[in-house]
Design brief:
Elements: E1 5-9, H1 13-20, E2 28-32, H2 39-44, E3 47-50, E4 64-67, H3 73-76, E5 86-89, H4 94-110, H5 113-121, E6 137-141, H6 145-156, E7 160-165, E8 176-179, H7 184-187, E9 192-195, H8 209-212, E10 218-222, H9 231-239, E11 243-248, E12 268-270, H10 280-295
Parallel strand pairs: 1-2, 1-3, 3-4, 4-5, 6-7, 6-9, 7-8, 9-10, 10-11, 11-12
Helix pairs in contact: 1-10, 4-6
């Protein structure tokens, strides 16, 4: 595929431009914030590099769309896609970042950080014996690159790691992988549940009351997509002690509105979608690699399966 004109649309377009101009790339570039992109820009472009797509603009005229993020739900969810347009996504340190993010909250829980903080405020000397990682069972929804990297790191620390996927296909680093809707009998055995699922028609509200009522005092972490979680069902599960704490990095609506009850719930930890950020350096490196492979007609390790949505 021959690519000459590349349109880069991003909130960090200035940083991307600075990095790309240091490289020897003989292409024509336009750098714009998302709100400034027009139909004329797309007519000019062979390739579009972006985080989001505007819903009122036709993208069929470009040859290639590259997502600067790991997820592509903003591009595909409930939208028609022209299969003649190649769609790729960024692959970088997302798995490592998310694994470390999740691990930090597991350790915070097992080492009783909150409890010791409260005891300090009360000036009480009251020992509590920390629990061990190698005694924990963890269930990860999503066994792709992010879920598998998390499973690799967790299993290396002695945890029993299980997976749930749409296919139920066996994956390395998981003790066992269950197909969606065939895992309910094992939910009660788990100490922690981690959701890494992308948002597709099949995963929308997949983490719901039917799952929560099989749990027993688990820790829950959502680093997948907000809309894959039924937030109201989560609140009810927290109030009924099916879940002892929840760490939420992603939400159905972002930024999370001030009136959302999740802000005030004592068992909920909130972070502003930072568990796996795309750094400018990593974003540019993946883009350049993909551009070279596309022009040489080489296999693309980050090619999106549009039908599956990831």
């Amino acid at each position: 595929m021959n690519i000459n004109n590349i349109l880069m649309v991003s909130p960090i377009f200035n940083e991307l431009q600075t990095l790309i101009e240091k490289e020897d790339i003989n292409k024509n570039f336009r750098y714009l914030p998302e709100e400034k992109m027009t139909e004329e820009d797309l007519v000019w472009a062979d390739a579009l590099v972006c985080f989001n797509l505007k819903s009122d603009i036709n993208y069929d005229q470009v040859k290639w769309v590259h997502s600067l993020g790991a997820g592509v739900d903003r591009l595909l969810y409930r939208k028609a896609w022209n299969n003649d347009v190649v769609l790729t996504r960024t692959i970088c340190s997302f798995g490592q970042r998310i694994a470390e993010f999740c691990l930090s909250y597991l350790l915070k829980d097992l080492q009783f950080h909150d409890e010791f903080h409260e005891l300090k405020l009360q000036k009480k000397w009251s020992p509590i014996t920390p629990r061990l990682l190698n005694e924990q069972k963890v269930l990860i929804f999503g066994t792709g690159e992010i879920g598998q990297t998390t499973a690799k790191i967790f299993s290396g620390l002695g945890m029993e790691v299980y997976g749930v996927s749409l296919s139920g296909k066996r994956k390395e680093y998981f003790q066992e992988v269950f197909q969606v809707n065939s895992h309910f009998s094992r939910l009660g055995d788990m100490n922690f549940i981690i959701n890494t699922l992308p948002l597709t028609e099949q995963t929308s509200n997949l983490i719901n009351e039917e799952i929560f009522r099989h749990l027993s005092n688990v820790g829950f972490i959502n680093v997948g997509r907000g809309a894959s979680l039924d937030e109201q069902a989560l609140l009810e599960a927290l109030n009924q002690d099916y879940i002892r704490f929840a760490v939420l990095d992603v939400f159905t609506q972002e930024p999370l509105p001030e009136e959302n009850p999740l802000w005030n719930h004592p068992k909920v930890h909130i972070t502003p979608h930072i568990s796996a950020v795309t750094t400018p350096d990593e974003g540019v490196a993946c883009f350049i690699e993909t551009l070279e492979n596309i022009e040489k007609d080489l296999p693309l390790r980050n090619l999106v399966d549009v039908k599956n949505g990831y």
